[in-house]
Amino acid sequence: MTIEVKVPELPESIADAVVVSWYKKQGEAIKQEENLVDLETDKVVLEVPAIVTGVIEKIFFEEGSVVTAGQVLALIDETAEVSDKKISESVSNKPVISSDPVVARSMADSISEVAISPSARKMMMENNLDVSVVQGTGKHGRILKEDVQSAISSGNKSEDKKPEVIKSQVVAQVSPASSLGQRIEKRVPMTRLRARIAERLLQAQQSAAILTTFNEVNMQPIMALRAKHKEKFEKEYGTKLGFMSFFVKASLEALKKFPAVNASIDGNDIVYHGYYDIGVAVSGANGLVVPVVRNAEELNMAEIEKSIVDYAVKARDNKLSLEEITGGTFTISNGGVFGSMLSTPILNPPQSAILGMHTIKERAMVVDGEIVALPMMYLALSYDHRIIDGREAVQFLVTIKEMLEDPSRMLLGV
């Protein structure tokens, strides 16, 4: 019996996807649940697994093709005779990536600096392949999947190379100015995800009246509370107690007091949400993504921390599903992890506000007439002035400040 493998259903906000990488060829065997093809949408890369064990009878779309929900990607003949040997042979040419974390990290850094297609990038990481041994044949020297396959078949590997050697080779290859004084330029097409990010950022600035208000928060109470209970918290719940759960909880209390900040504009209507889906911006393999902690008001601190850690791991491994990054009524972005002192975050449409966290720095502050050194953080709230008044925005941020400087208020709801 022939089974159709179709493009999965896509959310309303996503019209189509691009075929970026086939993991099998026509005539090759595949196991049930084994990944057959990667599809890149505006937001994430989707893995489409085989729904049965069999042989690939036909592939309908080449890499780079645009597909829509419900289209047939491939046919699998589940009645074909498939032996374990045949399946193992189809994957026998894939060496395991280096177990040395230093080498593996060096490989990841090396690959990220060169223009490489998503499928080629993944194959290079899986095969521990150094970019210096791959000759790109794509436009402007872009490395394609076929280039990587050619390098693998020729026996070029990087298992014996030291991280320092690998890094130096890559820098020499992509440096904008060589030792000979050449002025090198490289034109690289945007990935679909990067193009979508650019489009949405521009849309946010053009379609909303964005203002930003600032405040500062003394992080000493949170840091003292965290230091006192972090070991017991981790032992009890199996997850570390970070700062983000405090900010989520503080934001929830502020959102309850100022519902306009949790609302959105739809045409001439204001939609007030009776739930709190908090987006937490994290860095993914292909750029910034905002997974959503659903019904955050129903979660305790440990559940919030576990959700955020889980999302961070999935974002790093490019495993986030469309459902996990769709929607959200309010967003928190932490530029402090990169060392940012102050910023004006951009709205995540159709949301009306976003909270920006920043790095914690000891600064001289006046407390009861005395100058003391305190760990301070600047907070920024960017908001849509069409729906949120300046007074509401300022009071919202002050509420967050008060909750963080006196954490007991979050417990009491005052």
Description:
The longest helix is centred in the middle third of the chain and has 18 residues. The protein is built from eleven helices and 19 strands. α3 runs parallel beside α4 and α8 packs across α10. A hairpin with a 2-residue loop joins β13 and β14. 33% of the residues lie in helices and 23% in strands. The strands form five sheets. Strands 9, 12, 15, 16, 17, 18 and 19 form a seven-stranded mixed β-sheet that branches. A four-stranded antiparallel β-sheet has the order 1-8-6-3. It has three domains: 90 residues, OB fold (Dihydrolipoamide Acetyltransferase, E2P) (Beta Barrel); 89 residues, E3-binding domain (Dihydrolipoamide Transferase); 219 residues, Chloramphenicol acetyltransferase-like domain (Chloramphenicol Acetyltransferase, 2-Layer Sandwich), CATH 3.30.559. It starts with a strand and ends with a helix.
In CATH terms, the superfamily of the largest domain is Chloramphenicol acetyltransferase-like domain
- What's the structural domain tally? 3
CATH architecture of the largest domain: 2-Layer Sandwich
Oligomer: single chain
Order of helices and strands: EEEEEEEEHHHHHHEHHEEEEEEHEEEEHH
Q: Kindly report the average pLDDT value.
A: 82
Write down the CATH topology of the largest domain. Chloramphenicol Acetyltransferase
> What is the CA–CA distance across the termini?
64 Å
What does the largest sheet look like? 7 strands, mixed
pLDDT < 50 stretches: 91-113, 158-178
Q: How many β-strand runs?
A: 19
Based on secondary structure, the structural category is alpha+beta
Could you estimate the helical fraction of the residues in percent? 25-40%
**CATH class assignment of the largest domain:** Alpha Beta
Give the overall shape. elongated
Q: How many alpha or pi helices?
A: 11
Question: Any idea what the radius of gyration is?
Answer: 25 Å
Strand content: 15-25%
